[in-house]
Design brief:
Shape: globular
CATH superfamily: Carbon-nitrogen hydrolase
Number of helices: 8
Largest sheet: 7 strands, mixed
Strand content: 25-35%
Helix content: 25-40%
Number of domains: 1
Radius of gyration: 19 Å
CATH topology: Nitrilase/N-carbamoyl-D-aminoacid amidohydrolase
Distance between the termini: 46 Å
C-alpha cells in the first residue's frame, strides 16, 4: 500500500505568524488535493528562522537593536497553551483528515524554542518536540529543549518520527527514535542544500527508512518591508545591495530506504515535493541491517555498561 507524503518548501511572511500561517494553509490544502496524507514544512517556518544572528553580530552584549529584534521574534512566536494559529491548524487537519508535521518557534515565559509539532488526522496535537540543543548562534534566541517529545507517532499503521535541523546529526537522537520502530523520518531544516543533500541519503541508508528533509527559504524581499522599528537589524544586512539574495536556499528532498533520492534537493523555489511511500521497502532493507533490531547489541551499547568499561 502506497501513501503519498508532501514537503512544503516556502518562505515565511517574515516575523508575521498570522500571514505565514495563512500562506502555509493554502499549500497544505494544495497538498491534500493532490492526495497527500502527511504534510510537512521546515524548521521554525512560523514566524521564520532567525537567520540574522550570524550576519549581524548578534552576540553583542546588551545591544538595543538585537534586543528589539528578539522581542519582535518572541511576540510572533506561538504559545501552545493559548494559540489561535494552533487551533486553526488542528481544525484544518481534522477537516482534511491529514497528518501535519512542521516547525514553529514556540514561546514560554521570556524564552523561545525551535519546536516540531505533530497534529494527527483527528486534529489532536500528539507531539511537541523542542530542539534539544540549538546550533551555534541559535543559542542567542532559542533555549535548550527536552526529551519529552523524542518519540515516534502512529501514521498509516506504522511509526514515524522527526528531528530539527542538526539534531539529525546526533546518533543518539536518531537511535532513540529508531528504537521506537521508526519507519519514516522527517528532518526539518531552515533551508540550505549544503546540509540536506548528504545527510538525507546517509541517514536513510543507515536507518533503512524513508527520509523527508523539508526546508524553508528566505530571500531579501521576505523582510525588506519590515520597519526598522520592528526589525532594526535590517539596516545591518545591506538589503539595497542584496536584492534577490537567498539567505536560505531550500534543499528539500526525499530519500528511500536504500539511500537513493526519489526527489532531489529543490533549490531556490517555493514548491511542494511529493513521494509515494511503501513501508514494506523498509522491512525489505532491514532484512540485512536493522540496528535497533537483529543487528543491535543493547547488552553492550547502553549507558550503565559503558560507564563501567
Amino acid at each position: 500500500m502506497l501513501v503519498l507524503v508532501a514537503g512544503i518548501q516556502i518562505a515565511p511572511v517574515f516575523l508575521n505568524s498570522k500571514k505565514t500561517w495563512a500562506k502555509l494553509s493554502e499549500y497544505v490544502r494544495e497538498a491534500h488535493d493532490k492526495g497527500a496524507k502527511l504534510v510537512t514544512w521546515g524548521e521554525s517556518l512560523i514566524p521564520g528562522y532567525p537567520f540574522w544572528l550570524g550576519a549581524s553580530g548578534a552576540a553583542k552584549w546588551d545591544n538595543t537593536d538585537q534586543k528589539k529584534a528578539f522581542s519582535t521574534y518572541w511576540q510572533e512566536a506561538i504559545d501552545l497553551s493559548n494559540s489561535i494559529i494552533l487551533s486553526e491548524m488542528k481544525k484544518l487537519a481534522q477537516e482534511l483528515e491529514i497528518m501535519m508535521m512542521g516547525g514553529i518557534t514556540e514561546k514560554m515565559s521570556g524564552s523561545t524554542y525551535a519546536t516540531l509539532i505533530t497534529i494527527n488526522e483527528k486534529g489532536d496535537l500528539i507531539n511537541r518536540h523542542r530542539k534539544l540543543k540549538p546550533t551555534y548562534a541559535e543559542r542567542l534566541v532559542w533555549a535548550d529543549g527536552d526529551g519529552e517529545g523524542l518519540k515516534t507517532v502512529p501514521f498509516s499503521g506504522y511509526n514515524i518520527g522527526g528531528l530539527n535541523c542538526w539534531e539529525n546529526w546526533i546518533p543518539y537522537a536518531r537511535a532513540a527514535l529508531h528504537k521506537q520502530n521508526e519507519m519514516f523520518h522527517v528532518a526539518v531544516w531552515p533551508g540550505n542544500n549544503h546540509v540536506t543533500q548528504d545527510i538525507t541519503k546517509f541517514i536513510a541508508k543507515e536507518g533503512r527508512y524513508w527520509v523527508l528533509s523539508v526546508s524553508g527559504i528566505i530571500r531579501t524581499e521576505d523582510f525588506a518591508d519590515l520597519s526598522e522599528n520592528e526589525f532594526p537589524i535590517k539596516k545591518l544586512l545591506d538589503i539595497e545591495n542584496k536584492k534577490g539574495k537567498f539567505w536560505q536556499n531550500g534543499g528539500s528532498c526525499i530519500a528511500d530506504p536504500k539511500g537513493n533520492f526519489v526527489q532531489k534537493p529543490l533549490i531556490e523555489k517555493e514548491e511542494i515535493i511529493y513521494a509515494d511511500i511503501d513501508f514494506m521497502t523498509v522491512i525489505e532493507e532491514r532484512q540485512n541491517f536493522d540496528y535497533s533490531g537483529h543487528y543491535s547489541r543493547f547488552d553492550i551499547f547502553n549507558e550503565p555498561l559503558r560507564k563501567q568499561c
